[in-house]
Amino acid sequence: MAQALRLSMRSPAVVLEFMHPITWFAPMWAFACGVVSSGHAPGARWPVVVAGVVLAGPLVCGTSQAINDWFDRHVDAINEPDRPIPSGRLPGSWGLIIAIVATGLSLLVATVLGPVGFAAGVVGLVLAWAYSAPPLRLKQNGWLGNAVCGACYEGLPWITGAAVASGLVPSWRVFLVAALYSTGAHGIMTLNDFKSIEGDRRTGVRSLPVHLGVRAASRLACVVMVAPQVVVAGLLYLWGAWIEADVVALLVFAQIALMPRFLRDPRGQAPWYNGTGTLLYVLGMLASAIALAGTAPWPAP
């Protein structure tokens, strides 16, 4: 352990790589969308909002990545042997130690957010361990595992951001839109599974590409991404937010236009579509958040 600690202290870049900072963007963005959707300027609550963004991204999401890489080290040895643990750059049990310490730090910071923010942090961390660690290891079921990821990446931080920014229980509209974008994120999670098909198949992880086959899983991912956004656009039209509804609808059409390239070669093009289609997806989230802010059913305090 002492040797691993010395190695990690000399190589902070390895620890940062281990926690996958590129993945932090999604929950941080969702939290920010929640803040916008609340319809309240944070005012004196800005420090709490900033703490919430840090909690959603580097802390809870970073912790979940560390947990996943530790318990997936045998899978990564097949799919991505250059990752810190299988490559030997993070030796011994140091990966597990980082996950445990990061969990404690996340809980500490979550106390700053008040009861609602702390509860959300606890839920996110519990699901992070349940997703990757035995005995539950929810990721072994592609349907359930992707649903948990979608909720933690989109819905949970969105609702938490709205609650923290306003100091109030979010409206049912916020809950509904956050739930819809969480559902769509199930499809985004499926896109991430195409890169690890071989290791998943050999180690018993029933991701949707393994369970359904590459073609069926790719079509399902597209449908699951698009359908909730269509519902969101319809709701925004119903609530009178026509401009934002038009924006969401145009972004959906753009995603659909990009899908044929992905569907022709799902394994090869999943990273490309994850970068292009997902960008359009999250822009729609912001447009929806702005619409919710304009239709918030409570007065500003």
TrEMBL record:
Gene Ontology CC annotation, any one: membrane
TM annotation in the entry: 18-36, 48-67, 98-131, 143-165, 171-191, 212-231, 237-258, 279-298
GO biological process: chlorophyll biosynthetic process
Subcellular location: Membrane
Annotated GO MF terms: transferase activity, transferring alkyl or aryl (other than methyl) groups
Record Pfam families: UbiA (PF01040)
Protein name per its UniProtKB record: Bacteriochlorophyll synthase
